Amino acid sequence: MICMRTTLDLDDGLVTRAKLLAVRRKTTLTALIEQSLARTLADLEEAAGAVDLPVSESAEAPADFPWGSGGAMLEYLEARGAAS
Fold it and tell me: What region, left, alpha or beta, does residue 68 occupy, with left being phi > 0 and alpha being psi -120 to 50 degrees?
């Protein structure tokens, strides 16, 4: 694994809390930050892939709904203000 040495300006209180947590977990501050950053990025990537689809009272989709293509469905919904 290739590692990059990076300097970050972090809030002193946040770093103190993170160091204490690292000690309690018997790990390093670096490992704690790597795990937290990886988890946060995975959560954000997962959330970015989720699309809230509109719920209709009707059991039928519009006749022109583009089934079969995720991109076309998203464009259809965005054009109607149903996707954000």
Answer: left
CA distance 51 to 71: 11
Residue 24 three-state SS? helix
Element (H, E) at 46: helix 29-49
- State whether residue 55 is helix, strand or coil: coil
Task: Give the Cα separation of 58 and 80 in Å (integer).
Answer: 17
Distance CA 82, CA 77 (A): 5
Task: In whole angstroms, give the CA distance from residue 62 to residue 47.
Answer: 27
- Res. 31 pLDDT band, cuts 50 70 90: very high
Q: Which residues contact 65 (CB under 8 A, 6 or more apart)?
A: 73, 76
* pLDDT band with cut points at 50, 70 and 90 for residue 59: low
